[in-house]
Design brief:
Length: 185
C-alpha cells in the first residue's frame, strides 16, 4: 500500500497534465493558477492532519472503495474523451452530442485536487518546524510551475494529438487497474 498510493497519485497527475495539454496555452495557465490557489487555500486544513489520520484513511477498506469509485468514474470520463476525439464522426451532430463533447473537452480532472492535498500533507510532514505559510507559498508556486512546464513539455514531446490521446487512454487504464489494486489491501 505504501507504493500503490504514490504511484496512483503520479498516474492521476500524468493524466491531468496530458488532458490539459489539449487546452490552449492560456487555458493551461488558468488551470495551473486555479490549482496553485487551491494549494494555498487548503493549507489550513492540511496543517490539521496527522500521519495517523492519513494512514487510517488509506487503511479503511470502505473509504478506499469509495475513492476507487471516484477514480474509476474520472478515468471513464477521460477514456470517453479519448473515444470522442478519436470518433470524429460529426454526421449526426445533435445538441446533446455537442454539449457532451464541450463538457468532455472542458473537464480537466477533479482528482488532481486530492493528489494536491496528498502531496501538500507529505510536504508539511517532510519539513517539520518550517513556517506553514512559507511552505504553502512554495508549494503553490511549485504547483503552478510544475503544471505549466509539465503540460508544455508533454505537449512538446508528443506533438501529435493522436499520440497524446493514446497515452491518455493508456494512463487511465492503468489508473483503473491501480484503483482496483488499492482496494484489495
Amino acid at each position: 500500500m505504501d507504493y500503490v498510493i504514490p504511484l496512483l497519485a503520479s498516474f492521476i497527475a500524468l493524466s491531468f497534465l496530458l488532458k490539459i495539454g489539449f487546452y490552449p496555452r492560456w487555458g493551461t495557465w488558468l488551470t495551473a493558477g486555479c490549482c496553485a490557489i487551491f494549494v494555498w487555500l487548503i493549507t489550513p486544513w492540511a496543517t490539521e492532519q496527522s500521519r495517523t489520520e492519513i494512514i487510517a484513511f488509506f487503511a479503511s477498506r470502505q473509504q478506499m472503495l469509495d475513492m476507487s469509485v471516484c477514480i474509476t468514474l474520472e478515468a471513464a470520463a477521460m477514456i470517453t474523451f479519448c473515444f470522442d476525439c478519436f470518433a470524429g464522426m460529426h454526421i449526426h451532430n445533435t445538441m446533446f452530442k455537442q454539449t457532451v463533447t464541450f463538457l468532455l473537452r472542458l473537464y480537466p480532472g477533479l482528482l488532481i485536487g486530492g493528489v494536491l492535498c496528498y502531496v501538500l500533507t507529505q510536504i508539511l510532514f517532510a519539513f517539520p518546524g518550517t513556517d506553514f505559510k512559507t511552505l504553502s507559498w512554495i508549494a503553490a508556486i511549485a504547483t503552478f510551475l510544475f503544471i505549466c512546464l509539465g503540460a508544455g513539455l508533454l505537449r512538446m514531446i508528443t506533438s501529435n494529438e493522436a499520440l497524446r490521446l493514446e497515452l491518455l487512454f493508456i494512463v487511465n487504464l492503468f489508473i483503473i487497474v491501480l484503483s482496483i489494486v488499492a482496494t484489495g489491501y
